[in-house]
Amino acid sequence: MGAEYGVLPYYLAIAAIPLVQLFFPTLIVWLEVVVLYSGLALGALVGLVSDLVAITQGNRPSMLVDADDSFFLLLLGGYILAVTIGLFLSFPKGVRDDGNVA
């Protein structure tokens, strides 16, 4: 189950998505997906930015080691950022700004 490796909370968070969707089909699931994805995206982007800072300071990077991997990791970082922005902009259409269901 992953409990012995410490990943059970992550599995439970992913498993909670369909359970929450069963009771609150739009806004709650959107919020959960945005929070989970944004948290993981933030971790990936912080790693990429810290490597870029390490390169500019002359230190050895941990992820951006060679040219091919660096190009694709930076491309992946841009994709992650675009999906995160898209998730924030894709607010459920059934809910108005004042919180009432349309």
Detailed description of the structure:
Helix content is 68%, strand content 0%. It has 102 residues and is an all-alpha fold. It has one domain. α2 packs antiparallel against α3. The radius of gyration is 18 Å and the shape is elongated.
Could you say which structural class the secondary elements and strand pairing correspond to? Answer: mainly alpha
Which percent band covers the strand fraction?
under 5%
Put simply, the count of helices is 3
Radius of gyration: 18 Å
Counted up, domains total 1
CA-to-CA gap between the ends?
41 Å
| Overall body shape | elongated
Which regions are unreliable across 5 or more consecutive residues at pLDDT < 50? none
Number of β-strand runs? 0
> How can the largest sheet be summarized?
none
Helices and strands in order:
Layout lengths: L7 H16 L3 H30 L10 H23 L13
Give a short overview.
The protein has 102 residues and is mainly α. It has helices at 8-23, 27-56, 67-89. The chain has one domain.
What key attributes describe this structure?
3 helices; mainly alpha; 102 residues
